[in-house]
Design a protein that fits this description.
This protein has helices at about 5-10, 25-30, 35-50, 55-80, 80-85, 90-95, 100-120, 125-140, 150-165, 175-195, 200-205, 210-215, 215-235, 240-260, 270-290. The protein is mostly helical. The radius of gyration is 20 Å and the shape is globular.
Length: about 300
Amino acid sequence: MPIDQAAEFDAQPRFRYGARPVPLLGLFRACHPAPAMVVAVLATALTALSGRGATGCALAGLAVLSGQLSVGWCNDRVDLRRDIAAGRADKPLVTGDIRPAAVSVAAGVALAACVPFSLGYGLLAGTVHLVGVAAAWSYNLGVKATVASWLPYAIGFGLLPAAVTLGLPGHPWPAAWAVLAGALLGVGAHAANVLPDIEADTSAGVRGLPQRLGRRRTRVLAVCALFSASAVLVFGPAGPVGAAGWAALAFAASLSGYAVAAPGSGAGGRTPFLAAMAIAVVDVALLLLRGATLA
């Protein structure tokens, strides 16, 4: 990466939470631990529900976790200049709790570990997972600032069911509804994730699809994509919807209406974001409920 890391780090003002940096804690915080763990646990649970044994579940979980860690560290490293300019005191690279070189090395090590873990789960399944990881890296490395910012999310989430089912005996492709629901969930998660920081991103020169749409239309995009994922997960699989499916769909519909109509459309408003995240939780629950029928 064409950046003089030491000079960049030493020349910029830094913010401290305490008197001394805690490198390991800073490295942990820089990996975006919450989403990394959520996606890894989801992949492991889907693998278990699909019928794989303990070894397969462990490999799937480690593959996804290492991939997500690499993406998180890559994101904070690439965004360092922008985060410094924005005074992001929640970022350990900005506060000086960890050096840029350490984050770069961590991202590379995690990415390298992701390859054998992924291929160990299955050659075809592992290759599909690595394509999803590559899509996430492409987002960090520039696609996030283009009108196609939604595409890496759609690819990564849409391929997750395939990465699970292609590791099963016979290497079956996932059902079309599972891929579509995953892609919609990814697009909705992208729009919802950007929503709280949309003005700051625009000021920093990030011109992804949500920033081009603006806060109001991005809110609608997030809700429509996430609720559409709910509907696909309820009606896509064969068989009766069942009481749980109808209840989940009704709950998602109520959250969708609230997210669109709720106040908080100004800068910093988090109510629509939280409502959208609640719909995403419903979608994840539905995906797990359908986990045994992915293929």
